[in-house]
Amino acid sequence: MDHLMKEDKRSSLISQYDYFKKVPEESVANMFTRFSIIISELMGLDKKISLTEINNKILMCLPRSWDTRICAIRESRCQREITTKNHSRKLKSYELLLKTREPEDAMEKSSYSTKEKSIA
To answer: Could you tell me the pTM of the whole model?
Structure first.
């Protein structure tokens, strides 16, 4: 790969990294796969990214509905000590918890809506 093509590729990957977000309805596993590909390709082009930077990026790409979990992860350990694999495991576990609670949340909303109508 000539120098100009390498720089164009690197620039494109840096942009993908900078604007990386979890896509709505995307699983954490798929998000990590996409993120890992970008990181691997950047490192292959001699881009240095610290583990702390990677960990922060992972947490910041999640939607606001994950803020409680993000705070818990940040408070639990120093960001330099958490591996990307550990982040993946914790976030997949939390995603599963959210999915199991969705039916409960829907039933609570339905129950609340029925009570609200009967009061009116």
So the answer is: 0.69
